[in-house]
């Protein structure tokens, strides 16, 4: 069974790419990932390309999660604001909505922004 150089390079690229995605998900630094990938191959260009592609995909995933947090936090903060406005002159307690829901929503928004920025 003959394996051409192109097939070998694609197989090696896919193996390195999966390893890099796993290491990024585990929270490893770029230097640690580069060292781990360099143990598999001596091709520095291939390692750099794999790290760049894996980093792009990893940060794209984080941005998507960040947008979800941003939307949920905004909705909770808006809900707290609306409950406060509706109950302001009714004599009912609105402090939990004003301070609780709004603060919770703002905290979730900041978590989302943190994930978006990376």
What do you see in this structure?
The mean pLDDT is 87. By secondary structure, the chain is mostly helical. The protein contains 4 helices and no strands. Helix 1 (5-25) packs parallel to helix 3. It has one domain (5-117).
Blueprint (SSEs and pairs):
Layout (H helix, E strand, L loop, with lengths): L4 H21 L4 H9 L5 H44 L7 H23 L1
Helix pairs in contact: 1-3, 2-3, 3-4
Residue-averaged pLDDT: 87
Cα Rg = 23 Å
Strand percentage, roughly? under 5%
Pairing-aware structural class of the strands and helices?
Answer: mainly alpha
Number of helices: 4
In the predicted model, the low-confidence regions spanning at least 5 consecutive residues are none
Q: Which of globular, elongated, flat, extended, rod-shaped describes the shape?
A: rod-shaped
What's the total count of β strands? 0
Number of domains: 1
Series of secondary-structure elements, N-terminal to C-terminal: HHHH
In brief:
The protein has 118 residues and is mainly α. Helix content is 82%, strand content 0%.
Features:
single chain, mainly alpha
């Amino acid at each position: 069974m003959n394996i051409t150089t192109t097939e070998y390079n694609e197989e090696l690229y896919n193996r390195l790419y999966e390893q890099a995605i796993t290491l990024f998900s585990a929270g490893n630094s770029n230097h640690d990932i580069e060292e781990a990938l360099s143990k598999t191959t001596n091709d520095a260009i291939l390692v750099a390309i794999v790290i760049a592609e894996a980093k792009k995909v990893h940060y794209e995933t984080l941005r998507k999660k960040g947008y979800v947090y941003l939307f949920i936090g905004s909705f909770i903060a808006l809900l707290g604001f609306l409950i406060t406005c509706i109950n302001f002159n009714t004599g009912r307690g609105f402090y939990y909505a004003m301070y609780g829901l709004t603060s919770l929503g703002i905290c979730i928004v900041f978590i989302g922004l943190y994930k978006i920025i990376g």
